[in-house]
Amino acid sequence: MTTIDRDASGPEDLQKLHNDLAEVWANPAGLKALTIVNHTTLGLRFMVTGMAFFLIGGILAMLIRTQIATPDQGFLTPEIYSQVTTMHGTVMMFLFAIPILEGLAIYMIPKMIGARDLVCPRLTALGYWCYLFGGIILSFSMVLEMAPDSGWFMYTPLSSSEYSPGLGSDFWLLGITFVEISALSAGVELVVSILRTRTQGMALHKMPLFAWYILAMALMIVVGFPPLILGSILLELERAVGMPFFDIAGGGDPVLWQHLFWLFGHPEVYIIFLPAAGIVSTLIPVFAGRPIVGYGWVVFAITVMGFISFGLWVHHMFTVGIPQLAQAFFSAASMLVAIPTGIQIFVWLATLWLGKPKMKLPMLWIVGFLVIFVCGGLTGVMLALVPFNWQVHDTHFVVAHMHYVLVGGMLFPLMAGLYYWLPLFSGRMPSETIGKWGFWLVFIGFNATFLIMHWTGLLGMPRRVYTYDTGLGWDVFNLLSSIGGFVMSAGFAMVLIDIALHFRYGKPAKTNPWNADTLEWANKLPPTPYNFVSLPPIETRHPLWEHPKLPQEMEEGKHGLASADHGRREMWGTDPLTGKVREVIHVPSNSWWPLFAAMALAIVCISLLLRWYPLAGLGAAVAVVFLLRWSWENGAHPKAAPNANVTPGDPPLHSRTMDGPGVWAMTTAMIANGSFFLSYLFGWFYLWTISPEWRMPETSPLSLIALVIAGFALLGGAALMEKSVRGLRKQQERGLAFNFYGAALLGGIQFALILWVMVRANLAVTETSHDAILMVGLYYALLHSALGAVLSLLQGLRVGYRYVGLHAPFEPVVVAYFWRYNVVVFWILVVALAVLPRVIGG
Questions:
Q1: H or E element that contains 574
Q2: What separation in angstroms does the CA of 809 have from each of 636, 663, 730?
Q3: Whole-model pTM above 0.90?
């Protein structure tokens, strides 16, 4: 499909077009505002909620600085201090940094790539509600004085029942797992939206750099977050049921938790940094007045950094006793990551050098970022050296380095982006005077706080100690650091006051007030829910610089999809590489189902916390019902697509094709699922080979024959799904419902066989980690067999309702991908759990 343009025939038609779009994309008011799925509203909700948690985390930080400002301080008790330090790190890392950057991406990405919304808006809404409810549950632990106190990294055995007998660790494990659902939802959403909904002509090499950074961040979330979810599940099972995954006496190993945590934790540093660097790469060309130097080099650096970040997790574990060869490898890899980081820094400096920089307020924060982040990078190279790391590990030096990297590398660019896009949010310009006061207070206070903490760390002050004796040489430096912390807090208070006043007293902004080059500034200020009246063809990386009249043309309906009388929310579905138009994507409208599903999951979380397992099971069942009911309004369902007619010359609706965005969403979700599964296999083989008390029985308790029969049933179901898809591709739908029901039946047989294997095995899950981890693997297979059967059954029912068939062949392709994943994973599981133990023994 080539460029698709059209003109409204006159003022009356143009006004009707605007009215139709406003009606179709309208955000309801009152209680129904809870049903909104529009990315603009949800992005703002993510960011506002993230700022609320930032304030909570900041208050906790000031409590810490007050407690250790002077020696022998009794401001906080040791118990409360441990809770405060744990919750400060937890709130800042899990409830502020990731969600607010995801919120910014959710808000900005469709506007930058010329789309009207994200491709799965209800998934975004589910992610927000999970984030909000998970954050509330976790924060409520502080009100009850039952907050976790084992550190934001929850190392075992300190976080296990023996040393943390209360509910604190459970609040952390369940709340964080709930929040991680939100992060994964946003990750899947952003990957698919960037790859498949860019406006026509926007090939990958013409995509804004910010979108490249967000694509890398989202893919890293998809791969990097499942290890922590697995670790949290295993630790909660150990605490609640007694499965000894991390207990040496039962064949477990507490170091396994560190591996699973840092498999997530180190990529998270770059997940936080990449969007911030994307802001820098977006703003510097605008204020330098020229295109960025080395676009291709930046893309290369983003890609390399994303890959390398997954090979660095052990550099957080240099002191746990790993072999010297491993220390050498991870030390070298830790220093290697400085190369892609250095490429980006030199590109930014070269762009400023060759341009004519304007030192506006956003650029002030960018300069502060460059200074602080480079310093943090230098101390990072120091910590990559094993002998030096041994000396300063668990001291204030590490705390200072982490804040230089995370606050300097994320918060300063975030503030720059906030001020830069503030006119887009509000239609008003920021105050240069108040904003500069806020910047200088933050910049001076930050360096006064954390630069000095490097020195106290070198003097030997350990982190997480609630007090210290006088005469150790730390007194004056801690006092100065605490004063700096309060100065920094005053700076952030100034920024918040500035923003609050801005929405009422700010100077109205003109169109494209910064003379930017990217499409988000083609919106009205503030933007409409549908972003663009018409979707333009893009043949350049700098559309607003090369075509200044483009916003006016888009507003006049002179480009693609300039109609809405069909009642659908539409945008282009384009080729992931070339940006050529493939189909018209119709996205779902406002719905209660995401909120209801999140509320049911919240009930599950609270019930597990209180050990009300029957209620947790009921809540899980209700959540499944809500999710399945949500999935019913899909594809050719009347509420999803009121009619299938398209404007002459436009491609078909995505639900009438066999390669819509749902296929990409399923594939991306299965990547996350595969990361979870590989983390499970890592844990299985790690304990098998490393744990000093690992006990494997001479004969496997699992019935290999039953598992093999279950595997063949799975293969039969998958074959029926593939037969259905091939038939639809050949324009044949005879026996379609029969195939789906047959696949569901075979999935049910697999489910029954796995359940029989579990019961017959009679595993002692509370006595040995071997049996406990076998049980987790069997439950994983059981869940997937049940889900495959249910999805196939629903497909059969949808054929009867005429929601699936030759006229709408899309959904069976998506379900077939899930069956393919099940086949591969189940047979790997059989080999790992039932075959290898018989071949090589314990």
A1: strand 569-574
A2: 10, 12, 11
A3: yes
Place of tokens 């500035």: 498
Q: For residue 535, what are the CA distances in angstroms to 166, 206, 545?
A: 56, 16, 17
Residue 150 in 3-state DSSP?
A: coil
Peptide bond between residue 78 and the one before it cis (omega within 30 degrees of 0): no
CA distance to 324, 745, 799, 813, per residue, from 739 (Å): 56, 10, 11, 13
Exposed, middle or buried, 356 (CB in 10 Å: 0-12/13-18/19+)?
A: exposed
- What is the C-alpha radius of gyration for the chain, rounded to an integer number of angstroms? 27
Q: For residues 329 and 284, give the distance between their C-alpha atoms in angstroms, rounded to a whole number.
A: 36
DSSP type of residue 314: G
pLDDT in tens, 763-811: 999 999 999 999 999 999 999 999 999 999 999 999 999 999 999 999 9
Nearest-angstrom CA–CA distance, 27 and 29: 7
Phi/psi of residue 526, nearest 5 degrees: -75, 165
Percent helix, strand, coil in the chain (nearest 5)?
A: 70, 5, 30
- pLDDT at residue 393, rounded to an integer: 92
DSSP state of 643: -
By the 8 A CB rule, do 517 and 550 touch?
no
CB atoms within 10 A of CB 359: 10
Give the whole-angstrom CA distance, residue 719 versus residue 740: 11
Take residue 798 and report the two structure tokens written for it: 């949808």
428 DSSP β-pair partners: 508
- Residue 32: partners with Cβ closer than 8 Å, 6 or more residues away: 590
Q: Strand, coil or helix: what is 26?
A: coil
- Under 8 Å between Cβ of 516 and 544: yes
CB 373, CB 342: distance < 8 Å: no
Quick: pLDDT tens for 110-122.
999 999 999 999 9
Buried residues in 542-567 as b, exposed as e (16+ CB within 10 A): bbbbeeeebbebbbbbbbbbbbbebe
CA gap 214, 299 in Å, rounded = 12
- Give CA–CA dist 174/236, Å, rounded: 8
Amino acid code (one letter) for 261 = F
Query: Whole-angstrom Cα distance, residue 286 to residue 209?
Result: 13
Amino acid at 103: G
**The two three-digit tokens of residue 106, written as one number:** 């959710």
Nearest residue to 714 (alpha-carbon basis) of 792, 659, 773, 774: 792
Report residue 807: phi and psi, to 5°: -75, -20
Q: List pLDDT tens digits, range 52-83.
A: 999 999 999 999 999 999 999 989 999 999 99
Kindly state the tokens that stand for 587. Answer: 């996205």
Q: Which of 484, 477, 469 has the alpha carbon at shortest distance from 453?
A: 477
φ, ψ (nearest 5 deg) of residue 395: -115, 175
Please name the amino acid found at residue 674: G
Contact by Cβ (8 Å): 413, 429: no
Q: What are 508's strand-pairing partners?
A: 428
DSSP lists the bridge partners of residue 372 as: none
Fill in the DSSP letter of residue 766. T
611's torsion region: left (phi>0), alpha (psi -120 to 50) or beta? Answer: left
Q: Are 260 and 675 in contact (CB under 8 A)?
A: no
What type of residue sits at position 93? M
* Secondary structure class of 470 (helix, strand, coil): coil
- Asked if 76 and 466 count as a contact pair (C-beta separation under 8 A), the reply is yes
